[in-house]
Amino acid sequence: MAGDSNGDNDDVSDRLAGDSSSPLPSSERVEELASAGAAFFRRVLQARAASHRLMKKLLPAFLLLLAGLAHSLRADTTVVINEIMYHPATNEPALEWVEFRNQNSVAVDISGWTVTNAIQFAFPPGTIVRGGDFLVLAIAPATLMAATGLTNVYGPFTGQLPNGGATIELRNINGRLMDSVSYGVEGDWPVGPDGSGVSLAKFDRNSASGPPANWASSEQMGGTPGMDNFPLLGVVFSESKLARIDQPWKFDASGSDLGAVWREAGFDDSAWAAGPALFYNGTVIAGEVRPIPTLFNTGVGTNGSALPVSARDPHYLLTVSAQNPTNPPVAAIVMVNNAGWLANDTASSWIGAVSSGNVNINPGNYFFQTKFSLAGFDSSSAQVNLNVAVDNDLTNVFLNGAATGVAFSGFNGFSSTFTLTNGFVDGTNTLEFQTVNQPGPGTNPGGFRALVNGTALAILTNTFLRPGPTTYYFRTSFSFTGDVATTVLRLHPQVADGAVFYLNGSRFRPTTCSRAPTCLRWKSIRRARARMAWCSERNCWRCLSPRHPSLWPSTNWRRRPTRFSGWNCSTTARTRST
Ligand SMILES: [Ca+2]
Ligand SMILES: [Ca+2]
Ligand SMILES: [Ca+2]
Questions:
Q1: 241-282+463-576 with 312-459: one CATH topology?
Q2: Does the predicted TM-score (pTM) go above 0.85?
């Protein structure tokens, strides 16, 4: 469940789900709920914003990408910020500290390096961090050493670590920024470290310091100064997507109250409709205008960057050639531009039958062909824009064999934009540029260059839900063959306005990690690690100990989805490597 305009919280969800077993909240629970409610409301706003983005971009895999990208970013230095105790539970003025870690395997001399911004410190001469080792910088080193038994704690730093968030920077002896983090308590930042007694700890010690997704609440009261943040590491993570967001889901949009039976694993949903997430109702839009990704300028690689001279253009064929005519069609050759030509740049290059724009080539016809795909697009909506430069003449451009009448002569600058708006077909389309190298006198090179881009209406592939019902039901099934005892099932729902989730008939409950000591009661490897995963990610849901290998989540939507809605599930199986 996520996304409710009323600032829904878990107990409200209980009522939505008709779950009468929820105890009346104690005063402590009320306080916790208030905190959770505020956090939840932020998530609602974030989910809403994300939902609009999804609507706009039609990217069903957005959430997956979001999670994946953050972890792939790595710091470009070797000594980095690894753990921060900015709000100790007790004796805050004396127990703040920052832990650094050398991500490299060789020692790094950080003498003269400084810590700047929220706190200030200069490391003294002879400060060396061994490969893989930690360095702790404290506001009151003696106090921290007495409290922890640590030795060799650096400090004291000046300034303080604000509890609402701040920036910590690490600079080398020349003042160059080596690493920084702007921690906080909003958004994706875990809130556990804000006063509960645990630290803000980097989950993967080799990850970058910037993205909040790389940080979690420490599993240990007091954090782990001078030690691995998560000493259970040595554990191998493997992740499998069990239900993708864009796979077909079964759904019921009848508006009937299906009671509780629909959520059971054995429920027969064969009569339900099926369609891929994301689901939506409201205004039906035909699609969205998007760039055509398979159109390329001349002389660039598949990533759109200019190719080196003499490379073969992967997108443009020479189909007719007065020079070296033995074997067309062949891939056109990226050329050194003649001094009189518009110079090659990072976005496009000259192409032709030879690699040099400074040598003569035969007069005659040189035709260049490129193909692009309109799969997934409404071809009648396509528009392609051309800017060309040519030595000597572009006499016509053919789109799918039909002449467009586009012609141009000139090599010291691009033509103005020619726009093609009809003649497109579904699937593969072909553009052919017919050029002529005129006879001399004098030196007589020839070449062709084009900027080619276009747009078309992307066809909407998401599933429309009949407006009217206040409750929609969704089901999917998947098979999981790993060890459920070491598995966490994580759901990444994208919902407006609200949903309740079931797995094998049992209710999923959202975790609220607003009280980290609650997290700390989890002692087993499985649960402690699971909790970390939940705490460090937004919109993650707790798995109620699946007991058999076939897991059946279902959703029960209690409010009308006004925008795209959907979800995907992934599990993280964790197994000791040795
Ligand atoms: Ca503080
Ligand atoms: Ca640590
Ligand atoms: Ca020429």
A1: yes
A2: no
Q: Which residues keep their CB under 5 angstroms from ion ligand 3?
A: 391-392, 437, 444, 446
Residue 251, classed as helix, strand or coil, is: strand
| Domain boundaries along the sequence of the chain | 1-73, 79-217, 241-282+463-576, 312-459
Position 417: which residue type?
T
Centre of ligand 1 to C-alpha 47, Å, is 30
How are the residues of the chain apportioned to helix, strand and coil, as percentages rounded to the nearest 5? 15, 35, 50
The owner of tokens 């839009």 is 285
pLDDT averages per 10-residue partition of the chain, 578 residues? 31 33 33 37 39 33 28 56 94 95 92 96 96 95 92 95 96 94 90 87 89 86 88 62 78 90 88 85 71 96 93 97 83 96 96 95 95 94 97 97 98 97 97 93 88 90 81 84 68 70 71 30 28 29 27 30 30 38
**Using CA atoms, how far apart are residues 126 and 109, in angstroms rounded to an integer?**
7
Class of domain 312-459: mainly beta
CATH code: domain 79-217 is 2.60.40.1260
Give distance in angstroms: CA of 468 to centre of ligand 1: 51
Contact at 8 Å (CB) between 374 and 425?
yes
Helix (H) or strand (E) holding 43: helix 27-57
Q: How many whole angstroms from 483 Cα to the centroid of ligand 2?
A: 29
Q: What are phi and psi of 360, to 5 degrees?
A: -70, 145
Residue 27 DSSP SS3? helix
Residue 36's alpha-carbon distances to 28, 33, 59, 388, 516, in angstroms, are 12, 5, 29, 59, 12
Residue 321 Cα to ligand 3 midpoint, Å, equals 13
Rounded Cα gap, residues 350 and 445, in angstroms:
12
Q: Write down the architecture of domain 241-282+463-576 according to CATH.
A: Sandwich (2.60)
